[in-house]
DNA sequence: TTGCGTGCAAAGGTTTTGCATGGCA
DNA sequence: TGCCATGCAAAACCTTTGCACGCAA
């Protein structure tokens, strides 16, 4: 599946140590430099791509599509759904039988096999709703 | 609110005539050229920005954030959902009351306001499933 | 006439790619 | 040893911006 390298370890360790924070490729590159274990930016991109592929990191689009950010998810994160808050960027993980039924519906009525691991539902989380006085 | 110009009319007419298709700025520019009413690309962008602002056009991020696409918002297509095929990249738009109920569920049970316009469901489309013999 | 709209080219920023070198297995 | 991974720089990519000219009101 690929070699284990110092740079690869540095990247995944950084993502883990930030506790699921969402970071852009540039921020990751910068933080690695600050920690004294700089990694070439192309390597950061290439590595992140692989991590996204194998599911241990998730990729999001921010700034209206201007750039991507990455978030550590972990391997234990297989059978549940993800809700991501547009406002604070937080990623919520929910186990929910109802959402399993959604996948069934989509298959039956639209012939489409839903990939629950890749799909992310966007919106506003409870905390941010409260902060904003539910004015959406 | 702004001047009425030939170019502006061309753009909005194109978007209307494609029946709510999702088009990238580049595709719009190209199609206008083919129709013999070419518009400078920066004008396309500037015009689309205004149309998005006043709500007559909607902007989506596709290709994992690589670019944006635009869609005319008529009466008929105000509330629909996006299914994107991982295999062929096609974007399906479905009108579906059931998915409205999903948003209700997510709000009631998880306190999360779903943004149906931004959320994209990933998976495999009917055509690609058939091609691959349902071997997922 | 006024000043917004346009178009071209150049700049801007993020992400990808080519290629020689380095390091894992 | 064989090959993947790395890093640098350059390229590619979409989008925005500067500026002079054109056109709507």
Name the features.
DNA-binding; 5 helices; three-stranded mixed beta sheet; three-stranded antiparallel beta sheet; alpha+beta; homodimer; Arc Repressor Mutant, subunit A; 7 strands
Tell me the layout of helices and strands:
The structure is a homodimer of 136-residue chains.
Chain A: H1 6-17, E1 22-24, H2 25-34, H3 41-53, E2 57-62, E3 67-72, E4 81-85, E5 91-94, H4 97-110, E6 113-114, E7 120-124, H5 126-131
Parallel strand pairs in A: 4-7
Antiparallel strand pairs in A: 1-3, 2-3, 4-5
The structure holds a DNA duplex (25 and 25 nucleotides).
Stretches of chain A where pLDDT is under 50 for at least 5 consecutive residues are none
Q: Report the average pLDDT across residues of chain A.
A: 87
| Count of separate structural domains of chain A | 2
Shape of chain A: globular
Structural class of chain A: alpha+beta
How many strands in all of chain A? 7
- Helix share bin of chain A: 40-55%
Largest interface: A-B, 35 and 36 residues
Kindly report how far apart the N and C termini of chain A lie. 45 Å
Strand count, sense and barrel status of the largest sheet of chain A are: 3 strands, antiparallel
The fraction of residues in strands of chain A falls at 15-25%
CATH topology of the largest domain in chain A: Arc Repressor Mutant, subunit A
H and E order of chain A: HEHHEEEEHEEH
What CATH first level of the largest domain in chain A would be assigned? Mainly Alpha
